[in-house]
Amino acid sequence: ELMKFDCGGGAAVLGAAKAIAALEPPGVEAHFIVAACSNMINAKAYVPSDVLTASNGKTIEVMNTDAEGRLTLADALVYADRAAGCEKIMELSTLTGSCMVSLGKQICGVWTGNDVLAKEVEQASLMTGEKSW
Q1: Distance CA 29, CA 26 (A)
Q2: If we measure between CA atoms, which residue out of 34, 30, 45, 38 comes closest to residue 12?
Q3: Is the Cβ–Cβ distance between 31 and 86 less than 8 Å?
Q4: pTM assigned to the model
Q5: pLDDT tens per residue, range 28-48
Q6: What span, in angstroms and rounded, lies between the C-alpha atoms of 133 and 129?
Q7: Could you count the other beta carbons within 10 Å of the beta carbon of residue 13?
Q8: Could you tell me how far CA 72 lies from the centroid of its own chain?
Q9: How would you class 115 by CB atoms within 10 Å of its CB: exposed for 0-12, middle for 13-18, buried for 19 or more?
Q10: Distance CA 21, CA 123 (A)
């Protein structure tokens, strides 16, 4: 109702940034990007069937106006890939209720096309006790 869970991913990123800064691990360069936006209703708000252009030039048709986080996240990922020149990108978000229905509230879903990165996330999950699937 008050959209408090919508900031979960950004809050987790800021928490990770604080922890890594405190630990100062040698040889680690980390960039933290939070795709924050305001979700206000006004005459300029987009509506279903609007077509928006992302920062990489791809177009996105709006099917659900409650998906604003996905749009800002897409641009943040493009920025991380292009401008920040990141070797690995970890994305944290609370975008889909279906993940919570499938895995529950105590397990995070992990998706990647990179088997090496998937293994690293799995190992970190086991080391920290943070459950992932």
Answers
A1: 9
A2: 34
A3: yes
A4: 0.76
A5: 999 999 988 777 788 888 889
A6: 12
A7: 19
A8: 10
A9: exposed
A10: 21
Q: Which amino acid is at 41?
A: I
C-beta separation of 59 from 71 below 8 A: no
In the block, tokens 């943040």 appear at 76
CA 33 to CA 21: how far, in whole Å?
15
Quick one: residue 10, left, alpha or beta (phi over 0 = left, psi -120 to 50 = alpha)?
Answer: alpha
Structure tokens at 19: 């922890």
Q: How confident is the model at residue 1 (pLDDT cuts 50, 70, 90)?
A: low
The contacts of residue 125 (CB under 8 Å, 6+ apart) are 131, 132
Residue identified by tokens 């919570």 is 100
